[in-house]
Write a structure and sequence with these properties.
Blueprint lengths: L3 H24 L7 H12 L5 H8 L3 H13 L3 E6 L2 E9 L1 H22 L4 H21 L11
Antiparallel strand pairs: 1-2
Helix pairs in contact: 1-5, 2-4, 3-4
């Protein structure tokens, strides 16, 4: 069995190529939406009760920085701010239908780009990869289980 640090280094070395595949898929959309804005859209799409404070916490930024990101998304028609029905002093952040389409198109482009790479692998290697990624996801989920607000984005 390999040392754990060797395995971690092997996993880490694959991150750059994977991010390159994702970045190519992101840039295929015109105009390209910056990664920070995509992260905001992902967070608010997955969490219906997201307000500015929860978004800032999820992004690990101050609320004013999160607000500026939202300003840009709202200006491009990808985000709406609406009063929270439970507390009218709060503002909920909602993705627009255009944002949902954008995220779905991005997911489809990423999936196609990954499929192109995986086509170069044998079926057995692909099956091994799927099992390994599922095990990694299980372990990562267990580590983040203490994240009680459900804003896991990584």
């Amino acid at each position: 069995m390999e040392r754990l640090t060797d395995v971690a280094a092997a996993v880490e070395s694959t991150v750059e190529p994977l991010l390159g595949v994702f970045e190519s898929a992101r840039l295929a959309h015109s105009p390209a939406v910056p990664p920070a804005q995509l992260r905001v859209l992902t967070i608010i799409t997955r969490n219906d009760d997201t307000n500015m404070n929860r978004l800032a916490e999820a992004l690990d930024v101050v609320p004013s920085s999160a607000s500026r990101l939202c300003d840009r998304l709202e200006a491009t028609g990808l985000l709406r701010r609406v009063p929270d029905p439970r507390d009218r002093r709060e503002v909920r952040l909602l993705p627009t239908p255009a944002a949902r389409r954008l995220l779905e198109e991005l997911r489809e482009r990423r999936t196609a780009a990954i499929a192109d790479v995986m086509e170069r692998m044998s079926p057995a290697r692909r099956a091994d990869l799927v099992r390994a990624l599922a095990a990694f996801d299980d372990a990562a989920t267990a580590v983040s289980a203490g994240d009680s607000d459900g804003l896991r984005t990584a």
